[in-house]
TrEMBL record:
CDD domains: STKc_PknB_like. It is an enzyme of class 2 (transferase). The chain crosses the membrane at residues 353-374. Its EC number is 2.7.11.1. GO terms for molecular function: protein serine/threonine kinase activity. Residues 96-401 form the Protein kinase domain. InterPro entries: Kinase-like_dom_sf, Prot_kinase_dom, Protein_kinase_ATP_BS, Ser/Thr_kinase_AS, TPR-like_helical_dom_sf, TPR_rpt. Residues 888-914 are annotated as: Disordered. This is Serine/threonine-protein kinase. Keywords: ATP-binding, Kinase, Membrane, Nucleotide-binding, Repeat, TPR repeat, Transferase, Transmembrane, Transmembrane helix. The keyword Nucleotide-binding applies.
Length: 914
């Protein structure tokens, strides 16, 4: 498969530079006849001449390009004829050494470069810019470069550096992306409509982000969008962008097919110019699907609106274009098409036929229910006043139900695209506005609607409704119902990662149940809820008896398959997983899943939750193929049930990414994590606990790949957690630990130390010393102390860990054995060096088989252990064994990027020639 490199403008017409040169030759001539004569004299053929003349005649004027553009064109012409050859492969620019030429185009030449200042290894694309002559132009470029360098988006190639060459030529250093231009990527893989639109959506996200930073791209085209092997679209070449508030005319780097009419006329670029280019590129991506492509009329309408000749007729923003693409995906009416009744009706029936049927049934049921309530009311009126009030309330419920169902009728609401979520929103409005004088009924309806929101994967409104219902029920003295609402509230908070907040309502619910002397099953519900919350907080010894007691009570009452028994088994399975008792976790979860599968269809959310937890346990048991099969099924089911813009779907993406990463496939995990982050950001915002978890997962994958972007992701994840979680939350300690580990691996032990210390203190305050998180923190502190030349502190940590070794799982036993070897090898001391090295070899030879059994073949911990063993064997004088160990290590390291620290460390240990 052929691949393109970052910033190579290979899609610019080969003759375009010739057009620009000729433009400069003839633009000052008085009329078209003189220009034609001069073009013939210069040897231009008919096609080239026509293109030059068309450019000059744009918008019916003899000349529409401004003087700065003309100067740029002339400057580019001169440079293309020789000045551009100032630098060649092998030359150095600042910290960068040019390796090879990647391409050239109207805006300059592009070189592959490597960092050569000795700080770290990195590859980049260096672009020598043409057309920025003069001090004013270069000052402007410097201002733009500062803003462009701040663009930080997962689908935008970053601007890393810049400056001027010895000859005064400006250059940009951009992130090096290896991939294939988007149109060729789609063609060679024969991608279908949805797959092409998914890639295009990534481009839209990147461009929308840039526009929010007031940056215009100005040159959107297939050649400026590369798709990596993992399916990640990257938008390149912001080096020629213009800021939105700049009043500059067009530039010579335009690509005619994708440049908007106003750009080609020399007018300043705008957001609308980029939208035009997006439309042309979308047309390129979808036209190859042919006339028989699904819903051709609709996507052509989107293309037509985006690339309309008049800016006023285009989408007002990239967000508006994205909105129509989402409507296309969801079979909703497009804003790009006239909203005629046949079209709207067709879309409604295509999208909502099951709901239309359900609404009709609901109307019938509501009507029958109303009749029955009215009859009951008539009988009640003959009894007592309280019965009259209750009947009136019941009638009000029926009327509200009918009003909600009428909201689903297009003839009544005028909303043919009303979704189930919109219907629940409508019900919430009714409850808020129409039931203020009926607090008991209002509380009950809030509870029902809260459960509906929760089942739709929308926890925020569910939590608000549960809180309101619990407060109302408490004020009315209906304490048994309040306890049920508090339990639901605690579970909803726990399911969104707000475990510390969840403990309060969970304890309140249990206290109320115990004070009221509630029935056994209601007490079991409160105990199960509090046990679940405490387990998620890491307080396993408190959680386990509560969960076990709840299960015992529920088993005693069960008659056949019981949903509540399955819930207890599921929670006990999660607790076993938290305590690293993976075989027990698998058994509990399989039993829970078997019960749920008897009671619910395969796509039911409670079934899918157990599938997800079972897959996690199988992953830890190294049964990775089984885990991945379950997670792929989970992803498909959640897509069907919740859609691709839902929290449950995002969770499934994360879980599959984690399983792939555990299998040593971090490069495949990265796009899944990024997709999950995009969904969570849209639903909950960037500053949410869930987004912080997703960001941390991405950072771990980037760390495995040796990508320097891991540090920024770790830091942002930590900052979010510190902002939104209570002090002392274990999630904060986990983020501190991960960032400290990254800094240590980059050779920045002093920076890592305070973070590692804070993580250890946070974990010891909440967890038992033998907990795997506490063990991990002490191992990290040991390694940091050794790197900082503090052997006494390292020995203190090891002395704490050694008594725990029999209780540790095999993987952590092996890591502790490796750290004991590391202590013996640093620093090597004579005359005990050989004896220490031999003891270290013993520890490492015990650790290595365990690591090989527990980890995938390419896992970095295996490589670190082999490098340590190579060092020990050399110090022990075992040169031949050291050479064999190094050779095996090098075979692992060869798959890492050249800049990866472990690959560099492996290469540094290469044996000297015999």
């Amino acid at each position: 498969m052929s691949t393109d490199r970052a910033a190579a403008d290979d899609d610019i017409d080969a003759d375009y530079a010739r057009v620009k040169t000729l433009f400069g030759e003839v633009c000052e001539l008085p009329d078209e006849a003189a220009r034609r004569a001069r073009l013939i004299e210069l040897g231009a053929d008919a096609q080239i001449s026509q293109r030059v003349l068309a450019l000059l005649a744009q918008d019916g004027a003899t000349r529409q390009l401004s003087a700065p553009v003309e100067a740029m064109l002339l400057d580019a012409s001169e440079q293309l004829q020789g000045a551009g050859s100032e630098l060649q492969p092998g030359d150095r620019l600042g910290a960068w050494t040019l390796q090879s030429e990647l391409g050239h185009g109207g805006m300059g030449r592009v070189f592959l470069a490597e960092r050569s200042d000795g700080h770290y290894q990195q590859r980049a694309a260096v672009k020598l810019l043409l057309g920025w002559s003069g001090a004013e132009a270069r000052a402007q470029l410097a201002r733009e470069r500062q803003i462009l360098a701040s663009l930080n988006h997962p689908h935008i190639a970053r601007l890393l550096d810049g400056g001027t060459t010895p000859g005064g030529r400006p250059y940009l250093v951009m992130e090096y992306i290896e991939g294939q231009r988007i149109d060729r990527f789609c063609a060679e893989r024969s991608l279908d409509l949805q797959a092409r639109l998914a890639l295009f959506a990534q481009v839209c996200e990147a461009l929308a982000y840039a526009h929010r930073q007031l940056v215009i791209h100005c040159d959107i085209k297939p050649g400026n969008v590369l798709v990596t092997a993992e399916g990640r679209a990257m938008l390149l070449d912001f080096g020629i962008a213009r800021l939105q508030d700049q009043e500059q005319s067009g530039h010579s780097g335009l690509t005619p097919r994708y440049a908007s009419p106003e750009q080609q006329a020399g007018l300043p670029p705008t957001v609308s110019s980029d939208i035009y280019s997006l439309g042309r590129m979308l047309d390129d991506l979808l036209q190859p699907l042919g006339r028989q492509a699904a819903r051709r009329e609709e996507w052509q309408a989107i293309v037509a609106r985006a690339s309309a000749s008049e800016p006023a007729l285009r989408y007002l923003s990239v967000a508006a274009l994205q909105s129509d693409l989402r409507r296309f995906h969801q079979h909703l009416p497009l804003t790009a098409l006239p909203r005629r009744w046949p079209y709207l009706t067709r879309k409604l029936l295509r999208r909502r036929w099951p709901w239309v049927l359900a609404a009709a049934v609901g109307l019938l049921m509501a009507g029958g229910f109303t009749l029955r309530l009215v009859q009951e009311r008539d009988r009640a009126l003959q009894a007592e006043g309280r019965a009259r009030a209750e009947a009136a309330t019941a009638e009000q419920v029926s009327e509200m139900m009918i009003a909600m169902f009428e909201g689903a009728d297009p003839a009544v609401s005028g909303r043919p695209d009303l979704s189930a979520a919109a219907l629940v929103d409508k019900g919430r409005e009714h409850v808020q506005s129409d039931l203020g004088n009926q607090p008991a009924l209002q509380a009950r309806m809030r509870s029902v609607l809260g459960r509906a929101y929760e089942n739709m994967g929308q926890p925020r409104p569910a939590i608000e409704l549960y809180q309101q219902a619990a407060a109302q029920l408490g004020a009315q003295g209906r304490l048994d119902e309040q306890a049920a609402q508090l339990s639901r509230l605690a579970m909803a908070l726990g399911n969104t990662g707000r475990h510390a907040e969840a403990e309060v309502p969970a304890r309140q619910a249990l206290a109320l149940r115990e004070r009221l002397g509630s029935p056994a099953l209601e007490l079991a519900d409160a105990r199960d809820t509090l046990g679940y919350v405490l387990a998620r907080l890491g307080r396993h010894d408190e959680a386990e008896p509560l969960l076990s007691q709840a299960l015992q009570t529920r088993r005693a009452a069960e008659q056949g398959p019981d949903r509540l028994v399955a819930v207890s088994l599921h929670h006990l399975g999660m607790l076993a997983a938290n305590r690293a008792r993976w075989e027990e976790a698998e058994a509990r979860l399989r039993e829970a899943l078997a019960i749920k599968q008897q009671l619910f269809p395969p796509e039911h959310p409670t079934v899918l939750n157990s599938v997800q937890q079972l897959a996690a346990a199988l992953t830890q048991l190294r049964r990775l193929d089984e885990a991945q099969a379950l997670l792929r099924e989970l992803l498909q089911r959640r897509r069907q049930v919740f859609g691709v813009h839902s929290a449950p779907y995002a969770t499934a993406l994360n879980e599959l990414g984690s399983a792939l990463q555990d299998a040593g496939q971090a490069e495949q995990a990265v796009p899944l994590y990024r997709e999950a982050m995009g969904i969570v950001e849209a639903l909950q915002g960037r500053r949410s606990a869930t987004f912080a978890v997703d960001l941390n997962n991405l950072a771990t994958a980037l760390e495995d790949l040796g990508d320097p972007a891991a540090e920024a992701a770790y830091r942002e994840s930590l900052a979010i957690r510190q902002a939104v979680l209570p002090a002392g939350d274990l999630s904060i300690a986990r983020a501190q630990h991960n960032l400290a580990r990254w800094l240590l691996r980059q050779g920045r032990a002093a920076d890592a130390l305070p973070l590692a210390q804070a993580a250890l203190q946070g974990r010891l305050a909440r967890l038992k010393p033998e907990h795997q998180d506490c063990v991990d923190s002490r191992l990290l502190m040991t390694e940091l102390s050794l790197n900082l030349g503090q052997p006494a502190q390292a020995r203190a940590q090891l002395d704490t860990l050694l008594p725990l070794m029999p209780q540790l799982r095999p993987l952590r036993q092996a890591l502790l054995q490796r750290m004991l070897a590391r202590e013996l090898l640093q620093p090597p001391q004579q005359p005990q060096q050989r004896a220490a090295a031999l003891k270290a070899i013993e520890w490492l030879q015990m650790a290595l088989p365990t690591l090989q059994a527990q980890l995938p073949p390419k896992h970095l911990e295996l490589l670190r252990t082999q490098l340590l063993l190579t060092t020990a064997q050399r110090q022990a004088g075992q040169g031949a064994a050291a050479a064999r160990t190094w050779q095996d290590a090098m075979s692992r390291a060869a798959s890492l990027p050249p800049r990866h620290p472990l690959r560099r460390a492996t290469e540094a240990l290469k044996p000297a020639p015999a």
